[in-house]
From TrEMBL:
An example Gene Ontology biological process: tRNA queuosine(34) biosynthetic process
Radical SAM core domain segment(s): 30-209
Pfam name, any one: Radical_SAM
Protein's UniProt name: 7-carboxy-7-deazaguanine synthase
PROSITE patterns in alphabetical order: RADICAL_SAM (PS51918)
Native source organism of the sequence: Croceimicrobium hydrocarbonivorans
């Protein structure tokens, strides 16, 4: 990578952009809302069931100036979701400040594995077993979304719920390939523990990105 481009990536004024698209938020608290998604490449958390493994290698995704991404987002929606990969691998301050300057609501979906950078209206924390969240992300998360792959994940979810603020929304979401097996168990668990809610990947059910 050219030294000048590398310096801009490190500063956060360019980011390895995998894709950007306008769609309906399919998961968690904001399910059903129109949103512009910005997917940033690069992730070393490495979940075996990840459905966007092509995002892991940042070198596959071209460093892109954030100005054009911000303009694209502002054209489509007043809500922007930055996801990955793991977006906190990079400095999120420049892009979030630029999005906020456009009057946009800025959300992040993160594993919390890296310190929080950027200005956020909504932080969705989805912790992963391979690289646990840092303390500050627990403290600031608005939403905890735990992916349920097996029976042990209920206990694991409670361990993370104990670390977030009392106002944080709690969601259990079946891993897509295990949804038929785990959804009845999640339903039973939520009825017994109503502080939790169910999150579904509704975008996959209705056939949109």
């Amino acid at each position: 990578m050219d030294a000048a481009i590398k310096a801009q990536v490190e500063a956060g004024t360019m980011l390895p952009l995998m894709e950007e698209f306008y769609t309906i938020q399919g998961e968690g608290y904001h399910t059903g809302k129109a949103a512009y998604f910005i997917r940033i490449g690069g992730c070393d958390v490495g979940c075996h069931w990840c459905d966007v493994k092509e995002s892991w290698n940042a070198d596959l995704h071209p460093p892109t100036a954030i100005e054009q991404v911000v303009e694209n987002a502002a054209h489509y929606s007043n809500t922007v979701v930055i996801t990955g990969g793991e977006p906190l691998t990079w400095n999120m301050r420049p892009i979030t400040e630029a999005l906020k300057a456009k009057g946009l609501q800025v959300h992040i979906e993160t594993s919390g594995a890296y310190p929080l950078t950027g200005k956020w209206d909504w932080i969705c924390l989805s912790p992963k077993k391979t690289k646990p969240p840092v303390a500050e992300v627990y403290e600031q998360a608005h939403e905890l979304k735990v992916i349920v792959f097996n029976n042990h994940d209920f206990k694991w979810a409670e361990e993370h719920a104990a670390k977030v603020s009392p106002d944080c929304k709690l969601y259990l979401q079946p891993e897509w390939s295990k949804r038929e097996q785990m959804l009845p168990k999640i339903s039973e668990y939520v009825m017994a523990n109503p502080q939790w809610q169910i999150s579904l990947q509704t975008h996959k059910y209705i056939g949109i990105p």
